[in-house]
């Protein structure tokens, strides 16, 4: 190999190594002063504290929800709405609890953020919320409304207020992995997804967890195989 090719190869190698660097404490994440318990102790928790009133949470939401679909079976996503101002936030926490209970987060969140920021709907008001949920068709609004009116809903919202204080959440969005590591989004939300993955692996190693099996590839449809053969 001549000198020119050697220099090019070395530069490429350096570039690849730089891209593979692990998340750095103080740059990509910080360690919480006190580790907090996970809901599921035998898995890795990715916890988001957010606010439906928060524009940064609105911008992060589609990126984060899409990324959570790539999580391995040993990793789960949990969301808690912050409660700083009870007059504004408590009803939004109730909506969050209802959306979680109904299993409608992925479909409902875009509509909820859109209602607050684009349509200026006051979802901090319980009466407005009930009417708005009942009218929704982009997600199962009636199912969410049923959860919203359930016996446990207000208690779940109160628990979110307690979590806000216990975790000393000062800003949104706040992402915590494994009850220990807070993600820093200095390089944008997309790069933050890589940090989340690296921290999940870090927690796995610290907890002596086995590496999860890779997800099975989606089966190819017979129709797709026929179409591919026909193009040859």
Description of the molecule:
With 232 residues, the protein is α+β, with helices and mostly antiparallel strands. It has two domains: 21-82 and 172-210, Glutaredoxin (3-Layer(aba) Sandwich), CATH 3.40.30.10; 84-168, Glutaredoxin (3-Layer(aba) Sandwich), CATH 3.40.30. It contains nine helices and five strands; from the N terminus they run αββαβαααααββαα. α3 crosses α7.
How much strand content do the residues show?
A: 5-15%
Full CATH superfamily name of the largest domain: Glutaredoxin
**Order of secondary-structure elements:** HEEHEHHHHHEEHH
Structural category is alpha+beta
The oligomeric state of the chains shown is single chain
User: In the CATH hierarchy, what is the architecture of the largest domain at level 2?
Assistant: 3-Layer(aba) Sandwich
The main β sheet shows up as:
5 strands, mixed
| The CATH C-level class name of the largest domain | Alpha Beta
CATH topology of the largest domain, which one? Answer: Glutaredoxin
Q: Categorize the overall geometry.
A: globular
Distance between the termini: 40 Å
Radius of gyration from CA coordinates: 22 Å
Count of strand segments? 5
Total domains: 2
In which order are the strands of the major sheet placed?
1-5-4-2-3
Residue windows where pLDDT falls under 50 for at least 5 positions: 1-21, 223-232
Look at the structure and give the mean pLDDT. Answer: 87
Helix content class: 40-55%
Please give the count of helices. Answer: 9
InterPro entries: DsbA/DsbL (IPR023205), Thiol_disulfide_DsbA (IPR050824), Thioredoxin-like_fold (IPR012336), Thioredoxin-like_sf (IPR036249), Thioredoxin_domain (IPR013766)
Domain Thioredoxin: 12-157
Region (Disordered): 208-232
Pfam family, one: Thioredoxin_4
């Amino acid at each position: 190999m001549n000198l020119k090719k050697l220099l090019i190869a070395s530069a490429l190698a350096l570039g690849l190594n730089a891209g593979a660097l692990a998340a750095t404490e103080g740059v990509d994440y910080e360690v919480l002063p006190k580790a907090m318990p996970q809901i599921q102790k035998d898995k890795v928790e990715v916890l988001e504290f957010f606010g439906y009133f928060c524009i940064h949470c609105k911008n992060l939401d589609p990126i984060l929800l899409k990324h959570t679909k790539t999580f391995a079976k040993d990793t789960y996503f949990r969301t808690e709405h912050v409660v700083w101002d009870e007059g504004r936030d408590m009803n939004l926490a109730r909506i969050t609890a209802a959306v979680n209970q109904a299993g409608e987060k992925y479909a409902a969140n875009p509509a909820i953020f859109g209602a607050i920021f684009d349509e200026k709907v006051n979802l901090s008001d319980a009466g407005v919320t009930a009417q708005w949920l009942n009218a929704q068709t982009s997600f199962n609004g009636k199912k969410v409304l049923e959860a919203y009116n359930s016996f446990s809903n207000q208690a779940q919202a109160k628990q979110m207020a307690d979590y806000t204080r216990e975790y000393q959440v000062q800003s949104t969005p706040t992402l915590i992995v494994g009850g220990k590591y807070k993600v820093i989004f200095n390089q944008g939300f997309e790069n933050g997804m890589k940090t989340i993955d690296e921290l999940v692996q870090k927690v796995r190693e610290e907890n002596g967890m086995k590496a999860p099996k890779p997800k099975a590839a989606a089966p190819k449809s017979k129709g797709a195989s026929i179409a591919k053969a026909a193009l040859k």
